[in-house]
Amino acid sequence: MVESDPDRTALRFVNEINRHDVTVLLELMAPDIRYIDHLGQEVRGKERMAEVWSALFGRFPDLHIVIRDHLTLGPVVGLFGVASGTATDGGENAPATRWSMNAAWRAVVRDGRVEEWQVYFDDRPIRTLREAHHA
To answer: Are 13 and 117 a contacting pair, CB within 8 Å?
Structure first.
């Protein structure tokens, strides 16, 4: 079902991220979706986003977002909350590292589809944990 309300679509998108449901995430995306990560790097298109989501959920198998507040201005939705998870990218024998950080997301939603998804957070906590385990 396609939502016509941008904030409901954006919140549903977060719910599907929390469920790690790539199929439904793809259904909620516009064909030419533009994803911008916390470093400003861009990925375009559903096909590439399927790869991005699969890789992200593989690296952080318990990735979870809690939205504490959101606001909507036309098709743009700002979401504010906390992202958390466990990083498992250190190899088979490396300990998993748990992290949690404040984050924000910007969604542009038109006709019930996410056209843009941008992530804002400071990844220093993850880098610090990773460096401590590799030292």
So the answer is: yes
- In 3-state terms, what secondary structure has residue 75? coil
Domains of the chain, each with CATH number or no CATH: 6-134 (3.10.450.50)
pLDDT mean by block of 10 residues, the chain; 135 residues: 79 98 97 96 97 94 97 97 84 70 97 97 69 60
Rounded distance between C-alpha atoms, residue 26 and residue 69, angstroms: 24
Residue found under tokens 């996410």: 114
| Residue 97 β-bridge partners | 87
Structure tokens at 67: 């939205």
Handedness of CA 100, 56, 14, 69 (dihedral sign): positive
Beta carbons of 70 and 10 less than 8 angstroms apart: yes
Tokens of 106: 């910007």
Question: Six-digit token pair at 87?
Answer: 């990083």
Dihedral sign for Cα atoms in the order 88, 94, 96, 100: negative
